[in-house]
Amino acid sequence: MTTSPVNQKPVATWFRYCLFLTTIFNLFGAIRFAPPVYYGANTVELPKDAIFVHWVIASWIFILGAGYAWLAITAKPEKFFIAVAAACKIAIAILFFIFWFQGDLSFTFLLAGCGDLFFAFAFIFWLWQTPHTIKENQKP
């Protein structure tokens, strides 16, 4: 079991900047997938009859971005959230890459996938360099 977040060291400054950048990245992603933006600018090449899907994608991207912002502002390490976020970013990057290679998505999705992959690697690096503490009375 890990120690209470109250007793943990604050998040490293470089990682807080990374979380702020990820927040901005996700905000733009949420705006890009939102149906009013999609139908007005016609920039995302997703089916127009799937408005519900657009809102679900936009809301999830926004909610994760809000989580990154919260972690950056509070500077409290939440390893499980960061691990799940890294997995999500890797998964979406893989999907963007596959569908771009098939010709189903535009080049901007490939760039977005590269951004997600960059942040996933930054998250994994932070997880790797952040020590895992175990209470003294428990065996590893």
List the helices and strands and how they pair.
Layout: H1 13-33, H2 35-41, H3 51-74, H4 79-101, H5 107-129
Helix pairs in contact: 1-3, 1-5, 4-5
Provide an overview of this structure.
By secondary structure, the chain is an all-alpha fold. The protein is built from five helices and no strands. The chain has helices spanning 13-33, 35-41, 51-74, 79-101, 107-129. The N and C termini lie close together (9 Å).
What portion of the residues fall into strands of 2 or more residues?
under 5%
Strand count, sense and barrel status of the largest sheet are: none
Q: What is the quaternary state of this protein?
A: single chain
Element string (H = helix, E = strand): HHHHH
Distance between the termini: 9 Å
The total beta strand count reads 0
Global Rg: 17 Å
Shape: globular
Instruction: Give the low-pLDDT segments.
Output: none
Helix content bin: over 70%
Number of separate helices? 5
Rounded average pLDDT: 84
Alpha-beta content class? mainly alpha
Short description:
With 140 residues, this protein is an all-alpha fold. 70% of the residues lie in helices and 0% in strands.
List its salient traits:
140 residues, mainly alpha, 5 helices
